[in-house]
């Protein structure tokens, strides 16, 4: 295709992506270098019968004027990145010096907002992804063995949790595990503890969010593997059967290797989607026990009346760097494939 | 018995399948499937059923069976089913406004995304050059970025230019966020349409655009419909962008449900949210019912190529 034709064909999509994806990244970076203005304070002396006392008041008009003049705020360099709400170098250093054991150090780190979100996001991604792949494969094999007339309905039912709006899906589960909901109340009865609430403990909140994550993404891996199973070569399966391989051995030595390329695709998709976990935290109102990187950005932006653009920008930049690190192996591999094909 | 043995000799492939000795592994895997189907479907049935009850039944502290039989619903309304939740959501809280907003946003997002995406995806599929590859890689990175990171870049400029809070802004943002995915999907779809088709048209004297118009467009609809379904889902399900970029009177369904929860702590109003949630899930249910085959093929479209 000629360069010129290519350019005209790609122009609409490219300009949309440059204007609303590439430029906003630049804008996020610039924002992250600034912090909000301090309020303009006026010190005046109010004199009464018992002498004069200095009082400080906020000059709202001057603050608003300053805001108008420089909407970005004041320049702060990279300081936002290393303050307490982000990388917190000073706090981490202090914790390292003042704590004896690794456990105590960890306890201090996990109280810093950025690390708390990072640790939850990584745990969520690292637990949900392998569980979903293993269970998805198991269910795909199971559905493949079902009689034909049951396959369609089971795929239909499986698609529901995947396609449902994440916010809505997590609300549906949240109402069920609510202490008055069907699951929550049953659990209270089983343990005979009316104060037991899944929302009250950190461990239970994390479990709940991870269970939601598995419920929501399992269909994707199941359906992809199910489609892959339809392409397993009959000959190899028969040969393995004649050689006396048991069902389990055929699974491990024929089916799993055949699905390996699919597995790397599913892993990539799941990593990308799990890394941005966000809606369930809003729905479950879980922020007291679990926050994610996406959630702290959202929270900074919603700070009522006075959104913290600088802080949100810094977290966003670090999240984007995290995504790129996550994708590097894939990018390198695709690049190798491409250059091999090209030459 | 004899016929069975004969058929085994005649057609070994069939007989090995019809061997009916039940192995423990089969039982376990079937049990797992059954368990999964229950876990997948039960929350939806439960919430759908419960949306026709009053709050003290759906969130029953005394007995979970109340939510099934509706004891308190009968006591309060005289019938085991009530439409109070739906009336409250759709009439009192004016949920229909949000539905209209969602309709506008979703329709335009899908149409514009598909127009941009087919042109771009076609170009990427037919150009084997290095820059096409880099564009696809950039799209992959863009696809992986959490949407909320971009939203933090939009807010300040949008406030400055005074375009925050209105539907067109949200539509164009959703189109842009949708592009990486649409491009990848249509790109791999166009790769499956043989190059010879449009190239022979060009040998016959068509320009590239005429070849696209007369040769490619007539055969591209299956791929476009599949991609359109996923664009629909992205626009319909979005929370991060719509919650941050729309003013409260322009809210779409999903952020509206979230703000319901913030304002409706009063007794009984939780059922409004439950009814709204069921209403928001209904279109998705219909979508799966009619387009199951396309959704499945779309999910695996990128995967088959590896």
Fold topology:
The complex is a heterodimer of chains A (343) and B (306).
Chain A: H1 3-32, E1 34-35, E2 41-48, E3 51-58, H2 60-69, E4 74-75, H3 79-82, H4 89-98, H5 102-109, H6 113-144, H7 148-163, H8 166-177, H9 182-191, H10 202-229, H11 234-242, H12 247-275, H13 279-283, H14 293-302, H15 309-342
Antiparallel strand pairs in A: 1-4, 2-3
Chain B: H1 2-10, H2 12-18, H3 24-50, H4 55-58, H5 66-69, H6 71-77, H7 84-92, H8 95-126, H9 130-144, H10 147-161, H11 167-191, H12 195-203, H13 208-219, H14 221-237, H15 240-245, H16 253-263, H17 270-305
Helix pairs in contact in B: 1-2, 7-17, 8-11, 8-14, 9-11, 11-14, 11-17, 12-13, 14-17, 16-17
Overview features:
heterodimer, A: 343 residues, mainly alpha, MetI-like fold, two-stranded antiparallel ribbon, 4 strands, B: 306 residues, 17 helices, ABC_transporter_permease (chain A), transport (chain A)
